[in-house]
Amino acid sequence: MSRWSGASGASRRRPPPAPPPPALSLGLCVAHRLRKLALETVDLAKDPYFMKNHLGTFECKLCLTLHNNEGNYLAHTQGKRHQQNLARRAAREERDAPSSDVVVSQNRIEPRKTIKIGRPGYKVVKQMDPETKQRSLLFQIDYPEIEEGLQPRHRFMSAYEQRIEAPDKAWQYLLFAAEPYETVAFKVPNREIDKDEGKFFTHWDAQRLTFWLQLYFVSARSGPLPGAMQLLTAGAVAPQKDSEVPAPPPMPAQ
């Protein structure tokens, strides 16, 4: 009797082994740890497809899916659907991107780095057509040291393109350029230019190395041209009377 009693007592003192945790619970623990680790290492602010909407939930702009929390979104980014959409997006961008030879041909041409020798000499004559009463300007730009084979160029520039002074819509700028001289810009009234035959012409005298440009303004009712016309790179020019020729600007101090 005592032998059986001892055996039954020993069996009562030994606790039964604990049942193994269900496989589903173990999987949830691993997923939770992975999400926590991902939140600590991944910066969602840099994810272009991550968005928090006004309801407080999270959206994937690539897959158009909704997620209750950030961990759920991170788990989605590792899934098959998100990865397939990423691959499709990359393939489409690679297909739409221009080829390498096209990119090379579209590279911006670097400007020439030429040592400038100063500003060219110039004369500006204000005139008026006695028949049409149109005001005109005649520009004479001298380039005695221009590079061989080159011809001066010119263009009009709005007041909002330049960075020398505050823009004023009442003025525009006429630019002249030729290597190795500095580009000069004349500040002229912002009126419509008459482009009819005989009203606007340019001429390059290759013998005297002088460039001529004459222009007429369409509007004649605005009165005489303002006297504040100036060389932008040389400062203000004193007001001139009609047909008066201003002196060339002073050369910069050495």
Structural class: alpha+beta
Largest sheet, strands/sense/barrel: 5 strands, antiparallel
CATH architecture of the largest domain: Sandwich
| Helix/strand order | HHEEEHHHEEEEEEEEE
Distance between the termini: 126 Å
Task: Report the CATH topology name of the largest domain.
Answer: Immunoglobulin-like
Shape descriptor: rod-shaped
Integer average pLDDT:
76
Q: C-alpha Rg, in Å?
A: 40 Å
Ordered list of secondary-structure elements with their pairings:
Elements: H1 2-13, H2 23-41, E1 50-52, E2 58-60, E3 65-67, H3 70-77, H4 80-96, H5 100-105, E4 121-128, E5 135-142, E6 153-158, E7 171-177, E8 184-189, E9 193-194, E10 200-205, E11 210-217, E12 230-231
Helix pairs in contact: 2-3
Structure description:
- It is a single chain.
- This protein has 254 residues and is α+β, with helices and mostly antiparallel strands.
- It folds into two domains: 23-97, no CATH class; 121-231, Immunoglobulin-like (Sandwich).
- It has helices at 2-13, 23-41, 70-77, 80-96, 100-105, and strands at residues 50-52, 58-60, 65-67, 121-128, 135-142, 153-158, 171-177, 184-189, 193-194, 200-205, 210-217, 230-231.
- Strands 4, 5, 9, 10 and 11 form a five-stranded antiparallel sheet that branches. Strands 6-7-8-12 form a four-stranded antiparallel sheet, with no helix packed on it.
- A hairpin with a 6-residue loop joins strand 4 and strand 5 (135-142).
- Helix 2 crosses helix 3.
- The radius of gyration is 40 Å and the shape is rod-shaped.
- The termini are far apart.
